[in-house]
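Amino Acid Chain and Its Fold in Token Form
===========================================
Purpose: to set a sequence beside its fold so the mapping can be learned.
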Amino acid sequence: FQGLTVFENIRLGIQAHDPQRFNPWRPRETLETVNERTRAVIKFLGLEGVEEAQVASLSHGGQRLLEIGVALTARPKLLLLDEPLAGLAAAERERIVGMIRSLATHMGVLLIEHDIDRVFEFAEDITVMANGAVLVRGDARTVSGDRQVQDVYLGSGRQVVLGERTRPAPAAVPGVLLELEGVNTYYGKSHILHDVSLTVREGEVTALLGRNGAGKSSTFRSIMGLVSPASGSIRFAGESIAWQPPERIARAGIGLVPQGRRLFSGLTVAENLELGGLSRGKGGGVHWSEERIFSYFPRIRDRLNTKADVLSGGEQQMVAIARALSGNVRLLLMDEPFEGLAPAVVEEVFRSIDQLRREIAILIIEHDLDLVLALADRAYVLDRGHVSHEGPAEPLLTDIAFR
């Protein structure tokens, strides 16, 4: 419950699962006992100190810990986890993996997860599926060495793909397409972005990096007009777009690929693309026709009459990018485009974005640093709403100590 505190969420879970709740002959737990159990769960989760914080104010990693904690209030014998590591920074992933290992000594844990490298580290039994059928089942060595798994799921290997990336010859000096200067954004009384300044140039990929809760998605929301900055300026193609409604900003030529894709699940692929370009004219900038989009994402051509909710995760991500491109788009904002995708699908999406960079400016948020820095020309790092670093992406990719 986003509007409630951490403590209230855990306590509600404990009260809802009170075994005496519907037994009139046995007394329910006292509030003092419930509160003691609530504090014990919060301590186990490592969320001490933020008990009174509203859930909406927690980082993505903090919310994930709380989600697991609420499930634990049922005192389960079997815990089901669906993509528990998706969208988390490296340190947060290690924290969740440590918790899963601890829980597995007390209960069965069945999880779905695309971060196969970490799954290989701690899972005792692994089942790989494709198209509704089991490909292979066994331990990490058995699964990782299976040829079908290599072809269908693991792909050709990250280093191979990173080595193939495009590095276009630098233009003279690309013009500035998007410019934020001194942007301050608030959610209610909470000051989220502090004097954020950044530029995105024509024909470049710019990475926006930072821990969960650093202000990356809030920057996107400020650009798209989903939240209005309290001060500062946002200019696109030389025109001010600050305080403009989102639909006008979209028509100006900015496409958004949101985290989690957010397709219209009951509509077909064709209908999703049609809605994406509904109010974007063909004049000025780059016009993305369906045929042009299909040249980058040929797989979705064969899925046009398929409902979006039955597509695979990779196909949904391709449709989300295609929908954002539909119409007159000059700048693409991408929020976690590789989240929750199998390694082989990540490679396919990576290659598509790498080709797109030749024709459109891209501002991208992504926690997988190797992937995003291989794509990016320049990078900005946000830390608690402040820009703490800006510069070329290459040193962050190649110099681990500097990273």
